[in-house]
Amino acid sequence: IDEKYSRRRLLQGALAARDAKGVTLKVKGNGERYYLHLRTKQTRLPWHYYQASFDSSSDWQSVSIPFSSFEQSGWVLGAEIDPASISSLGIVAYGKDHQADLWIDEIGLY
After folding, report:
1. Closest-CA residue to 53 (of 67, 68, 69, 39)
2. 25 exposed, middle or buried (CB, 10 Å; 0-12, 13-18, 19+)?
3. For the whole model, what pTM was predicted?
4. What are the pLDDT digits (tens) for 23-73?
5. What is the spatial distance between Cα 56 and Cα 9, in angstroms, rounded to a whole number?
Protein backbone atom coordinates (compact mmCIF):
# COMPACT_ATOMS: atom_id res chain seq x y z
CA ILE A 1 0.00 0.00 0.00
CA ASP A 2 1.29 3.43 -0.89
CA GLU A 3 1.65 5.22 2.47
CA LYS A 4 0.93 8.67 1.05
CA TYR A 5 -2.25 7.41 -0.61
CA SER A 6 -3.37 5.63 2.58
CA ARG A 7 -2.70 8.68 4.74
CA ARG A 8 -4.49 10.97 2.30
CA ARG A 9 -7.51 8.68 2.21
CA LEU A 10 -7.54 8.52 6.01
CA LEU A 11 -7.45 12.29 6.37
CA GLN A 12 -10.09 12.78 3.68
CA GLY A 13 -12.29 10.29 5.51
CA ALA A 14 -11.86 12.21 8.75
CA LEU A 15 -12.71 15.47 7.03
CA ALA A 16 -15.85 13.91 5.57
CA ALA A 17 -16.97 12.70 9.02
CA ARG A 18 -17.70 16.11 10.56
CA ASP A 19 -20.70 14.70 12.42
CA ALA A 20 -18.79 11.77 13.94
CA LYS A 21 -19.37 11.12 17.65
CA GLY A 22 -16.34 8.96 18.38
CA VAL A 23 -13.87 6.26 17.37
CA THR A 24 -14.66 2.59 16.91
CA LEU A 25 -12.10 -0.22 17.02
CA LYS A 26 -12.26 -3.97 16.44
CA VAL A 27 -9.53 -5.44 18.65
CA LYS A 28 -8.36 -8.48 20.57
CA GLY A 29 -5.50 -8.70 22.99
CA ASN A 30 -4.12 -10.06 26.22
CA GLY A 31 -6.65 -8.61 28.66
CA GLU A 32 -4.64 -5.47 29.39
CA ARG A 33 -5.82 -1.88 29.27
CA TYR A 34 -4.63 0.15 26.29
CA TYR A 35 -4.99 3.80 25.35
CA LEU A 36 -6.07 5.55 22.21
CA HIS A 37 -4.30 8.86 21.53
CA LEU A 38 -5.69 11.38 19.06
CA ARG A 39 -3.79 14.33 17.71
CA THR A 40 -5.55 17.26 16.09
CA LYS A 41 -4.63 20.58 14.54
CA GLN A 42 -4.61 21.97 18.10
CA THR A 43 -2.02 19.47 19.42
CA ARG A 44 1.05 21.31 18.18
CA LEU A 45 3.56 20.17 20.81
CA PRO A 46 4.76 16.53 20.95
CA TRP A 47 3.33 15.99 24.44
CA HIS A 48 -0.16 17.22 23.51
CA TYR A 49 -2.82 14.63 22.69
CA TYR A 50 -6.29 13.47 23.64
CA GLN A 51 -6.43 10.12 25.49
CA ALA A 52 -9.07 7.49 26.22
CA SER A 53 -8.61 3.94 27.53
CA PHE A 54 -10.13 0.62 26.52
CA ASP A 55 -9.74 -2.92 27.82
CA SER A 56 -8.80 -5.83 25.57
CA SER A 57 -9.85 -9.47 25.72
CA SER A 58 -8.71 -12.66 23.99
CA ASP A 59 -11.82 -12.54 21.77
CA TRP A 60 -12.44 -10.03 18.98
CA GLN A 61 -14.57 -7.19 20.28
CA SER A 62 -15.86 -3.91 18.95
CA VAL A 63 -15.03 -0.93 21.14
CA SER A 64 -16.73 2.43 20.67
CA ILE A 65 -15.14 5.43 22.39
CA PRO A 66 -17.10 8.69 22.24
CA PHE A 67 -15.08 11.86 21.80
CA SER A 68 -16.53 13.04 25.13
CA SER A 69 -14.52 10.25 26.88
CA PHE A 70 -11.16 11.61 25.70
CA GLU A 71 -9.15 13.71 28.14
CA GLN A 72 -6.75 16.37 26.96
CA SER A 73 -3.10 16.07 28.00
CA GLY A 74 -2.74 19.78 28.70
CA TRP A 75 -4.89 22.67 29.80
CA VAL A 76 -4.15 24.59 26.58
CA LEU A 77 -6.15 22.06 24.52
CA GLY A 78 -9.86 22.55 24.03
CA ALA A 79 -12.16 20.11 25.79
CA GLU A 80 -14.05 19.16 22.61
CA ILE A 81 -12.60 17.28 19.66
CA ASP A 82 -13.48 18.40 16.16
CA PRO A 83 -13.45 15.20 14.04
CA ALA A 84 -12.43 17.20 10.97
CA SER A 85 -9.25 18.30 12.77
CA ILE A 86 -7.97 14.78 13.63
CA SER A 87 -4.50 14.37 12.14
CA SER A 88 -3.33 11.09 13.69
CA LEU A 89 -4.33 8.24 15.94
CA GLY A 90 -2.11 6.04 18.08
CA ILE A 91 -2.61 2.93 20.21
CA VAL A 92 -0.49 3.03 23.37
CA ALA A 93 0.45 0.54 26.10
CA TYR A 94 0.91 2.85 29.07
CA GLY A 95 0.86 3.16 32.83
CA LYS A 96 2.53 -0.03 33.98
CA ASP A 97 5.12 -2.62 33.03
CA HIS A 98 3.39 -5.21 30.85
CA GLN A 99 3.86 -7.10 27.62
CA ALA A 100 1.80 -5.40 24.91
CA ASP A 101 -0.14 -7.81 22.70
CA LEU A 102 -2.96 -6.18 20.77
CA TRP A 103 -4.42 -7.01 17.36
CA ILE A 104 -6.37 -4.35 15.50
CA ASP A 105 -8.71 -5.35 12.67
CA GLU A 106 -10.60 -2.10 12.08
CA ILE A 107 -10.44 1.56 13.07
CA GLY A 108 -13.13 4.05 12.14
CA LEU A 109 -15.31 6.94 13.16
CA TYR A 110 -18.97 6.56 14.07
Report:
1. 69
2. buried
3. 0.83
4. 999 999 999 999 999 998 889 898 999 999 999 999 999 999 999 999 999
5. 28
Is the predicted pLDDT of residue 104 greater than 90, yes or no?
yes
pLDDT in tens, 73-83: 988 898 899 88
Do residues 84 and 12 lie in contact, with contact meaning Cβ atoms separated by under 8 Å? no
- Strand order of the β-sheet with 71-72 is 71-72, 50-55, 33-40, 86-92
Q: Are 35 and 53 in contact (CB under 8 A)?
A: yes
Please give the single-letter amino acid code of residue 22.
G
Which residues neighbour 88 within 8 Å (Cβ) at sequence distance 6 or greater?
A: 38, 39
